[in-house]
Amino acid sequence: MDPTPSGKRVCPSVRGASNWMSPSYNAETGLFYVPTLEQCDIYTGSAKDPEPMKGFAGGGGEQIPTELGKFYLRALDPKTGDKRWEYPMTGPGTMWAGTVSTAGGVVFFGDDDGQLVAVDARTGRHLWHYYMGQMLTASPMTFLVDGKQYVSIAAATDVFTFGLFEPAQPVPLIREREEP
Q: Could you tell me if 112 and 98 are in contact, meaning their C-beta atoms sit under 8 angstroms apart?
């Protein structure tokens, strides 16, 4: 389809259904994890002819003010293209962080509210999140030091690192003393 001077609604938007945000693949689950944006734009073309040495935009895509769009983390089967699950972002903010999938069955990603989020790689069930206080534009990474696993993500001028090696221990409930 060719854009027109009055514009045509086209999906996906200029920001793309999936664009700069790094996806990841987990060989254990066989799933591909990709941040996606459901949004359309109005694409326009110019009726003028370009002239040498004169500025000429020619057209482009513009956001539709009434259609803010919605970000999702999606788990896709790369063999079939089927969507296995999706995790909706709380937005409509901007999401530029990617994903990393671990052998332990966890997918880490930065959402559009500035949180590092962990979900179950098989089901997409929310496991954990931490608010970074700023927009995330990097993808998380994971690494080992002395046999202990960490996950890190850059946020603006900060780098946050979390240890993944401490097992959850049940905490006994403190019972209130009963009055005699």
A: no
